[in-house]
Design goal:
- The complex is a heterodimer of chains A (about 100) and B (about 110).
- Chain A is mainly alpha-helical and about 100 residues long.
- Chain A has a single domain, classed as Orthogonal Bundle (Cytochrome Bc1 Complex, Chain D, domain 2).
- Chain A is about 55% helix and about 5% strand.
- Chain A contains six helices and two strands, in the order H-H-H-E-E-H-H-H.
- In chain A, a hairpin with a 4-residue loop joins strand 1 (about 40-45) and strand 2 (about 50).
- Chain B has helices at about 1-20, 25-35, 40, 60-70, 80-85, 90-100.
- Chain B is an all-alpha fold.
- Helices cover about 60% and strands about 0% of the residues of chain B.
- The longest helix of chain B is centred in the N-terminal third of the chain and has 19 residues, at about 1-20.
- Chain B is built from six helices and no strands.
- The chains are: A mainly alpha (about 100), B mainly alpha (about 110).
């Protein structure tokens, strides 16, 4: 019984630390491609190209998305886009971006 | 008429030039990257840790924006603030040009596939 509980707990903790699900990430990242999927797409005021994300490091993407959501990094559009994302959503998107550079 | 055309052409090219602004020198940027950026981002722009962004093939003007924002404090990161503070505008343009030109393992725009 004790073993079963421990096993169940381990499984649970494994799930909560689960790596990102790229398939789900792709689904929820559709709006991202509206800017990040268009080559040479420009950010306005200030003007610069929106960054390429295909092949970017997962952990960096997660940190960037959290910084926008939590208000540590300023960008009106990105703050709005991230406001409703859970940590798991972010991990899933990051997994998708990391593999999207073939 | 021809003079007018020439004049407008000149004006247009000036305008185009001014919006591009200072274009970095990738060779000078590499030399600067060897002193400043290499320890964490590598000369290949791949980074030594997954929490550091890859830089290879990134848009130069985005990198310039990021470095300027770190330097001004608009974007907050204790490590990057320290390094960006040592860079001039010219250094920023140059290192950004350097990393943007790297082809190996370069970043791409997202594809919808």
């Amino acid at each position: 019984m004790k073993t079963a509980i421990i096993l169940a707990l381990m499984t649970l903790s494994l799930q909560s630390n689960a790596a990102g699900d790229a398939t789900h990430g792709k689904k929820i990242a559709y709006t991202c491609t509206g800017c990040h999927g268009i080559p040479f797409y420009q950010n306005v005021n200030p003007q610069y190209h929106v960054p390429k994300l295909g092949g970017q490091n997962e952990a960096y993407i997660i940190a960037a998305l959290k910084a926008y959501r939590d208000g540590e990094r300023n960008h009106t559009t990105m703050q709005a886009q991230t406001s409703n994302l859970s940590d798991q959503d972010m991990a899933d998107m990051a997994a998708y971006f990391a593999t999207n550079n073939k | 008429m021809r003079r007018l055309l020439l004049k407008s052409l000149l004006l247009l090219s000036l305008l185009a030039f001014s919006t591009i602004g200072f274009t970095g020198d990738a060779a000078l940027g590499k030399a600067k990257a060897e002193q400043v950026c290499v320890t964490c981002h590598g000369l290949d722009g791949m980074g030594i840790d997954a929490t550091y962004p890859k830089l290879a093939g990134q848009y130069a003007d985005y990198l310039e924006q990021a470095l300027s924002d770190y330097r001004s404090g608009a974007r907050k990161n204790a490590i990057m603030a320290g390094f960006a503070a040592t860079l001039t505008d010219e250094d920023i343009a140059n290192v950004s040009a350097y990393y943007s030109t790297l082809k190996e393992h370069r970043l791409t725009d997202l594809s919808k596939k």
